[in-house]
Design a protein that fits this description.
The structure holds two protein chains of two kinds.
Chain A (H helix, E strand, L loop, with lengths): L33 E8 L10 E6 L2 E6 L5 E6 L4 E7 L7 E6 L6 H4 L12 E3 L2 E3 L2 E2 L14
Parallel strand pairs in A: 1-8, 1-9
Antiparallel strand pairs in A: 1-4, 2-3, 2-5, 5-6, 7-8
Chain B lengths: L36 E9 L10 E5 L25 E5 L5 E7 L4 E2 L7 E2 L2 E6 L8 E6 L18 H5 L4 E2 L10 E4 L2 E2 L12
Parallel strand pairs in B: 1-10, 1-11
Antiparallel strand pairs in B: 1-4, 2-3, 2-7, 5-6, 7-8, 9-10
The chains are: A mainly beta, B mainly beta.
C-alpha cells in the first residue's frame, strides 16, 4: 500500500505546541531510574538548538526540545535500551535510533557494523548516562530505516 | 530498523492531558481570534484503511496574519492576543478527529528571495505502532504558492503531494458559522482489529 500521508519537516516553530510539562520524565525519578543527558549535533559538530527528541519505552513516551546548546535530557525507567526519535527543521522525515546502556547488546545491535556500534551505546558519568546524537559526519549516529 | 522495533505497539497518552477544549483553538482566550473560522476534520487510517482509534493528534499553526506565537518567529505581522495556535485531541472509535481554528496566513521565511510558505497546519500523529509516527503539514486546496514552496515540493511524487492537501467540505461546513476542510491521514502500520463487541 503506497497511499501513506507523506512526512514534512517539523519546522522551527513547534516549541509552543509540542513540549509538555514533565515531558522529559519517561519515569518518575526514583530507585532504578536513570538520567540521560546528551547533545544534538550537526555534521560540523555544531549544536542543533531547535530539535525535538522523543524517547519511547513501552507505552510511555517522553519529549524534550533541545536548548540553545543542543542539550537534551530524560529521566528513564530501567531498561536495556530505549527507542529514540529525532525531529529537526532540516529533516524532511524524523530519524529513528536507539540508545543502549553501557555494555548492553542484543541481536539488533550486533547487526550494526562493529565500528559503528559505539554510536548507539551511552557512556556513564557519575551515574548519569551520556549520549550524543550526531546527524552527519564521521561519527554519525546509526539511524534505522523507516518501515518499507 | 531492528525487526523487533516497528511493530511494537505505540504509546498511550495518559501523560498528555487532552482536555475537551483543546481541539477548539478559537476558545482558548477571553475573546475570539481574528480570521476566517474553519473546521478541520477527517479520519486517521492505517495502511489497510482501518480507523486508528484513541490516537493523539497534535496541531500547531500561524495565526490569520501568518505569524506564529513562537518567540523564534519575528517577522512584522501582528500577533493575535486571542490566538495561541496549538491544539490536540484523541481520535474517536472511527478514527475521526475534529479541530475548530482560523485559517492560517502565508508567511515569508527567507529561504530564498521572496520565499513564502503556503498556508498550512502542522500535524503530529502517533498511530498503532512505533513505526507509525508521523509529523507532517496539511495544506489548503488551490494555494497559488504550491509551485514555489520547496517544503511542499520536497515530496517528489505529485500524487503524494496531493495527499497533503485538504479538500473543501461543504457537507461539514456550518451555515452562518465556519467553512470546513476535510483531510484524511494514512499512517504506516496496522491498527488492532476492533473487538466484536464494538
Amino acid at each position: 500500500m503506497s497511499d501513506f500521508t507523506p512526512s514534512q519537516t517539523v519546522g522551527p516553530f513547534f516549541g509552543f505546541a509540542l513540549p509538555f510539562p514533565g515531558g522529559a520524565e519517561v519515569a518518575e525519578a526514583g530507585p532504578g531510574t536513570r538520567r540521560l543527558e546528551g547533545q544534538l549535533l550537526d555534521g560540523a559538530g555544531e549544536p542543533v538548538p531547535d530539535g525535538l527528541i522523543e524517547i519511547w519505552h513501552r507505552e510511555r513516551f517522553g519529549r524534550c526540545r533541545t536548548d540553545a546548546e543542543g542539550l537534551f535530557h530524560f529521566t528513564l525507567p530501567p531498561a536495556p535500551h530505549y527507542n529514540v526519535y529525532v525531529f529537526a527543521r532540516g529533516l524532511l522525515r524524523h530519524l529513528v535510533t536507539r540508545v543502549y546502556l553501557p555494555g548492553g547488546s542484543d541481536a539488533s545491535l550486533e547487526r550494526v557494523p562493529p565500528e559503528r556500534r559505539a554510536t548507539l551505546v551511552a557512556g556513564e558519568d557519575g551515574g548519569t548516562l551520556r549520549w550524543d546524537i550526531r546527524l552527519q559526519g564521521d561519527r554519525e549516529t546509526v539511524f534505522f530505516e523507516p518501515v518499507p | 530498523m531492528p525487526e523487533d522495533f516497528h511493530h511494537q505497539p505505540g504509546p498511550v497518552f495518559g501523560r498528555v492531558k487532552v482536555g475537551a477544549g483543546d481541539s477548539d483553538l478559537t476558545r482558548q482566550h477571553s475573546g475570539e481570534p481574528l480570521g476566517q473560522r474553519i473546521v478541520v476534520t477527517g479520519r486517521v487510517l492505517d495502511g489497510d484503511g482501518r480507523p486508528v482509534r484513541d490516537t493523539l493528534v497534535e496541531i500547531w499553526q500561524a495565526n490569520a496574519a501568518g505569524r506564529y506565537i513562537d518567540p523564534a518567529d519575528q517577522w512584522p505581522a501582528p500577533l493575535d492576543p486571542n490566538f495561541t495556535g496549538a491544539g490536540r485531541c484523541l481520535t474517536d472509535a472511527e478514527g475521526r478527529y475534529r479541530f475548530v481554528t482560523v485559517k492560517p496566513g502565508a508567511y515569508p521565511w527567507r529561504n530564498h528571495h521572496n520565499a513564502w510558505r503556503p498556508a498550512h497546519i502542522h500535524f503530529s500523529l502517533f498511530g498503532p505502532e512505533l513505526g507509525s509516527r508521523l509529523v507532517t503539514q496539511m495544506y489548503f486546496p488551490g494555494d497559488p504558492l504550491f509551485p514555489f514552496d520547496p517544503i511542499y515540493n520536497s515530496v517528489p511524487d505529485p500524487r503524494a503531494r496531493e495527499r497533503m492537501v485538504a479538500r473543501f467540505d461543504l457537507e461539514t461546513t456550518e451555515p452562518e458559522w465556519a467553512l470546513a476542510f476535510r483531510w484524511d491521514i494514512v499512517l504506516r502500520g496496522r491498527a488492532a482489529t476492533p473487538r466484536a463487541a464494538d
